[in-house]
Amino acid sequence: MSFVDTSVAAINPRARRRRILRRRFMRRPLAVAGFLVAIAFVLAAILAPVIAPYSAGATDFNALLAHSSRHHLLGTDELGRDVFSRILWGARASIEAGVLATLLAMAVAVPIGIVAGYYRGWVDAAIARLTDVLLAFPFLIVAVGLAAILGPSLTNATIALGIGAAPALIRIARGEALALREEDYVRAAVANGASDLRIIARHVLPNMLSTLIVQATVAIPAAIIGEAVLSFLGLGVQPPTPSWGVMLSDAQSYLAQAPRLAIYPGIAIFLCSLSFNLLGDGLRDILDPRTTR
Amino acid sequence: MSLLAVDGLSVRFDTDDGPVHAVDQLSFTLGESEVLGVVGESGCGKSVSFMSLLRLLPETATVEGSATFDGIDLLRASPARLRAIRGRKIAFVFQEPMTSLNPAFKIGNQIGEVLRRHLDLSRRDARRRTIELLELVRIPAPDQRVDEYPHQLSGGMRQRVMIAMAVACDPKILIADEPTTALDVTIQAGILDLMRDIRERLGTAIVLITHNLGVVADVADRVLVMYAGRKVEEAPVHELFARPQHPYTNGLLGAVPRPGAGRLREIPGRVPSLAELPVACAFAPRCPRADQLSRSQVPDLREVAPQHHVACFHPGPDAEAAA
Hints:
The complex is a heterodimer. By secondary structure, chain A is an all-alpha fold. Chain A has helices spanning 3-11, 13-26, 29-51, 83-119, 121-135, 139-150, 154-180, 184-191, 196-232, 244-251, 260-287. Chain A has a single domain, classed as MetI-like (MetI-like fold, Orthogonal Bundle). In chain A, helix 4 (83-119) packs parallel to helix 11 (260-287) and helix 7 (154-180) packs antiparallel against helix 9. Chain B is of the alpha/beta class. In chain B, the strands form two sheets. Chain B has an eight-stranded mixed β-sheet with strand order 6-7-8-3-9-10-12-11, sandwiched between helices. Chain B has a four-stranded antiparallel β-sheet with strand order 2-1-4-5, covered by helices on one side. In chain B, helix 3 (107-119) packs across helix 4 and helix 4 crosses helix 6 (155-167). The radius of gyration of chain B is 21 Å and the shape is globular. Chains A and B meet through helix 1, helix 8 and helix 9 of A and helix 2, helix 3 and helix 6 of B.
């Protein structure tokens, strides 16, 4: 460590590390753009009641399938509902499903993965094989199947997406736990009389956190697209509640007259999932110690 | 009465290529406040023997024998009982100071955790005691260092932190497994000095596992020389250096650099594979004194002088070294 390094570190090490991370993040324009757009979508979802010019179900029978205008920024649909407002309201379903499904997947997958990776043995063999089997099915197929069993609603779609995303996360948590249990500080903790539970809580979990955060930002866009797919298929949000998937589904009948009804929610899905993906990529780059400083 | 009595300790690893006998019938004792040096080449079973005492080896290891500490056999104690001993009564310092601290937590919290677990201290008391400990291991500005993360400390500092953590609960025995190997020479001297200091101040018995005879000469009271999983010689430190008996010990001493002593002598050959235990002196293939007897029978330990035991059919100092 150089002289300058230590003296700055001595003042406030945490602030210094934060500053380094922020600087590394700022050097990645795509990540910054992703972050800003993702924040915009989250804000849109939260503030929909405030910023949406119309309520989600409000119909304007004087403007059916209207083009963009002063009154209706992105035009209206076949029932005269304002498309811009519905996209803002629809962001709620998407963000909610994306975030909650990811949290659910984490809550399910991380304990299972840690138990498998930390304890090894037959428990691990059983869990690892089972996740391999589940991973053989594409994520959306599993989610559609589960949603069909659970019945159509946003809550059930979220549960289905969360469980569908769990196997991949189990595998990641297991891999991390497998590597971390061999760390010297784990051995030192054992030699100091720490119990398994304490080692997991203090040594294994905190050190896999950055990996899990990155995985979460990758899982969120997948769940957002998943929610759109399920709602499109009628397994998620039920009309008339707005959701990008529902809007796409409704737009099918009017593709010839008003393709914009499909294009606008499509763009929303695209931008929203892309922004979270870019954010995730950026976080991975800055948190991964193997990438250059 | 001795603090720790190990009797007939054997460790076997079951690997895909068959069993490996890492330790064979090792017996020794450790007295109160005694510093025992354990020397031998890499892979002679030094670390494994002591890790097996606290059952820190992976499940592929089969451990036999007994290790009596405080009236209990460590090798048969329940996991809960063992956890209460690990770090509290018997503490370990490992070779790798760079990676033995959790990078996610401040060093103060890591030392404090041990204190709170074993001694049931409050958060505040643990912190106060942690600062005292950092002072004990001579870390400058302990009240600032306590809030630093491992990556902010140098290797020598981290080893000091590890030692502070090990002596936190005032253990009876401190097992230091090559504590200075990863450090540079000037820092080594400081760490050894610290070990001596800890023994004097706290009365802790110390087991110093090393392949560095200089370190042993410096701090140990008694020395145990191991070769291929067996004890080949044991003696008080002055006795061992003055009158080494086993040809392996002689070989080790011959390989220590001394000013003006000319070319270092090496021990020919290499450490044998531990796949099977030979019914012979394990050192015979490399030994200039080996004969038919050495190759057909395992030599027993014999007392050649008070407290000086050697397992060799032809003990005695090297003619060359004596000259």
